[in-house]
Design brief:
The protein contains four helices and five strands; from the N terminus they run H-E-E-E-E-H-E-H-H. Strand 1 and strand 2 form a beta hairpin. A five-stranded mixed sheet has the order 1-2-3-4-5. It is of the alpha+beta class. The longest helix has 24 residues.
Length: 133
């Protein structure tokens, strides 16, 4: 089968679009692109944004030596690319750096702490509710 010029142009356009989309998505998902945004009361989120669009966030609050994680959400554009794990790594690094204990109310963070307790034991506040799990 022989391709005509307009078919070749269409194929090249599709390939270029796919490449640019992949490059953009992989560029924004690094841990260095994740920023912590906190208000004066210690409430905020670790966020991943591009062009003022929030692509991922981990909602938190900091009080009394604890960093409480409420929720983690990743845009459909970035699902399955390790972004939630990058948010988790950034949050844990921040907790360690600031000598905070983590209260994992978020189902994702709680599941990761339970699956890998040896990785998070130093920051995991297992006694925040008065009971050890």
């Amino acid at each position: 089968m022989r391709l005509v010029d307009n078919q070749k142009t269409w194929i090249m356009t599709e390939i270029l679009t796919a490449f640019l989309t992949f490059r953009t998505l992989t560029k924004v998902k690094t841990m260095n692109d994740i920023q912590l945004k906190l208000d004066s009361s210690g409430k905020g989120a670790f966020v991943l944004e591009e062009s003022s669009e929030r692509l991922a966030e981990m909602a938190i609050s900091i009080a009394d030596g604890n960093l409480t994680v409420f929720h983690t959400e990743v845009s459909d554009k970035l699902k399955g690319q390790g972004v939630a794990a990058n948010l988790l790594s950034k949050m844990v690094a921040y907790a360690r750096e600031h000598n905070l204990k983590v209260i994992p109310l978020c189902p994702y963070v709680s599941a990761q702490f339970r699956r890998h307790p040896d990785q998070y034991d130093d920051v995991w506040n297992k006694h925040w509710h008065g009971k050890s799990k």
